[in-house]
Design brief:
CATH superfamily of the largest domain: D-Amino Acid Oxidase, subunit A, domain 2
Structural class: alpha+beta
Order of helices and strands: HEHHEEHEHEEHEEEHEEEEHE
CATH architecture of the largest domain: 2-Layer Sandwich
Radius of gyration: 21 Å
Mean pLDDT: 94
Number of helices: 8
Number of strands: 14
Amino acid sequence: IRHLPKWLADPLGPLSIPPAYLPKLLPWLVRFWRAGRSDRYEASLTAQAGLMRLAEAEWAGLMARSGTENMLREDGSLELYESEAEFKASLPGWAARQRFGIGFSHVEGDALAALQPGLSSRFVKGTFVPGWKTVTDPKLLGKAIWAYAERNGARFEKARIDHVGAGQDGATLTLADGTVRQAKRLVIAAGAWSHLLAKQIGDRIPLETERGYNTTLPRTAFDVKRQLIFSGHGFVVTPLETGVRVGGSVELGGIERPPNYARAKALLDKAQKFLPGLDPAGGREWMGLR
């Protein structure tokens, strides 16, 4: 919260809300603010920790069944701080993580340099989380999981859904070309668009989307040892099998506004300052609706 005024004042900062979208966003922002009140903080932490433990166990099982375990990276993460004040401000968050069994160690000097050679000297301390996990490439993992689903009888149909109806016998989907599909059970898993479908069957979900930006550079751009987290600037640098990904930031602007790739460029500019040897050539920009 303390960073909000500074972030919102910078149109290319870690958090952006287009002024024209603010009236539509306001009811959700009020709910978001209420959910973050101090009297709900511990309950929220407990719920999130439980979800993360469940997700970790379920993903481990799915990757084992689908033969994708080799796509899991377990080389930890390194969160970085530019000053002693920034580091001290992070300590309550680490104390909370410790309460839920998350292991970490604070590092500086030679220990910091060993975890990620080539960092800018502006970083005075870091926090290493050895249990942090990433994947070799989210797109390739998604495709491999889908191939596993197909081998087990799943079928993919690409279509636009114009209407969803629900009754005693199940769900009815009306597609854009007039085709009607019947289903005894319907799972709505449409990401940022899910609330639009759920609303048609009576579920009003206060869902918003984080519009996140990234640039994926060639693998030779920099030798990134593990995911680097620049929390003070709202982005991460992640090593992938297919390249080096510089991504993050939050833009609360809905699902219809066109991408503002100046945000991706701003992240890449910062990454060059933080990793002085980073080669920015040959990058692919992307915006995703989280």
